[in-house]
Amino acid sequence: MKYELFIAKRYLKSGRFFISVSTWITILGVTLGVAVVCFVMSMHNGFESEIRTRLLGTTSHISIFPLRGGLINNYDEMVNNLESIDGVVAASPFIYYKAAISSSSSGDGIVIRGIDVEKERQASNIATDIKLGKYSFEPQITENDTIPGIILGKTLAQNLGIYIGERAVLYSLKGEDLHRKTRPRVAKFYVSGIFETGMFEFDAQLAYISLESAQKLFKVGNSVTAVHLKLDNIYNAELMKPIIDSSLEYKYDIVPWYILHKNLFSWIAIEKKILFLGFILIVIVAAFSIISTLVMLTMEKREEIGILKTIGSTPASIRKIFVIKGMVIAFAGVLSGWLIALLAAFIQNRYELISLPPDIYFITYLPIDVHLFDFLLAGIVTIIICYLAALYPAFQAAKLHVVEVLRK
């Protein structure tokens, strides 16, 4: 063991009470700084991952729209073509329009999605999101009428005061000439299922009906408004876009998930960077504590530094002693901070202690997703800051002259 490391370890263990306490406080400051940075980064990872999973579970990985609006007429042929492309797991046509809905006790404006039951089961998570009832639009047949099923979001069903098996009415003016005296088309449905995605925007405003019922209600004939795809890897969406575009002869607008929800994911990414820079300031504050601790140590160890120089220690060796102590503080703080962040992440994911208002943050609790890169980045930045903070007192200690020390 080099003697600089030996002396640095002795300095860590010895010293006046005030300096010893100051060292521990400095380590605690670095620990809290690293823990906060790592936890916040993991929080944003979890938030982004949860939002992405739930969004793509409903809207899928790539959406295909007609250029300049309009409708897709040959959607069966398109779906077969798309599903033959390597990397495409499933394709599902759908109709997407706004409508009004009413129950016996309330009403609301909502978004209606008309889907093919089996194809949508393969392309999205709607079938697994059903909490009550069943994933089916099988009609109720009575003596006087045949009433198809509708699947409502949980919050929407609560707002309407409606339950499984009860009736709801949809109203639409899509396709009507509004210059004439027209009345909205009316269609009766019974609630066959209630889904919950965990995202307030979908659960409070979205309802599913069969593709055939939507074509009749919105007067679109044998057409759909869009087709969406599920890929075997969501991060291949950018690579798949030109392949799909070429397969469709460049006649449609191909929109990957990161473009469809660009504003949301861009906001999350920017906020993560800003918070990282902000919380690094906590580490910089702890670095000033390292400076003050080492300066006080230099003042206390003046005589010992003089003796070391007398027996032949060079200024470089003196600098190493104080830099090593600063690095010990940094490494101790980083390791402790990592452990605290991991423990906090485990507790939050296990017990969901921090909840969120779903109407603001889309999700009901704060998920934590630990990434090794974020921990390493926070640790490396902290060690660099602490190293730079230790240089000033180290150079000051190395400057001490033997004659002045011994004279005092």
Return the string of H and E elements.
Answer: HHEHEEHEEEEHEEHEHEHEHHHHHHH
Approximate shape: elongated
The main sheet orders its strands as: 2-3-10-7-9-8
The main pleated sheet reads as: 6 strands, mixed, barrel
Q: Give the DSSP E fraction (strand runs of 2 or more residues).
A: 15-25%
Low-confidence stretches: none
Helix content: 55-70%
State the helix count. 15
> What's the count of strands?
12
Q: What is the assembly state of the chains in this entry?
A: single chain
> Please, what is the average pLDDT?
87
CA-based gyration radius: 32 Å
The end-to-end span amounts to 32 Å
Tally of individual domains: 2
Q: Which class do the helix and strand fractions yield?
A: alpha+beta
Provide a descriptive summary of the structure in words:
The chain is built from 15 helices and 12 strands. The model has no long low-confidence stretch (mean pLDDT 87). It is elongated, with a radius of gyration of 32 Å. By secondary structure, the chain is α+β, with helices and mostly antiparallel strands. It has helices at 3-13, 17-59, 75-83, 117-123, 154-160, 200-205, 211-217, 237-247, 257-260, 262-300, 302-310, 315-351, 358-361, 372-399, 402-407; strands at residues 62-66, 88-102, 107-115, 130-133, 140-141, 146-147, 149-153, 167-172, 185-195, 206-210, 226-231, 252-256. 56% of the residues lie in helices and 18% in strands. β5 (140-141) and β6 (146-147) form a beta hairpin.
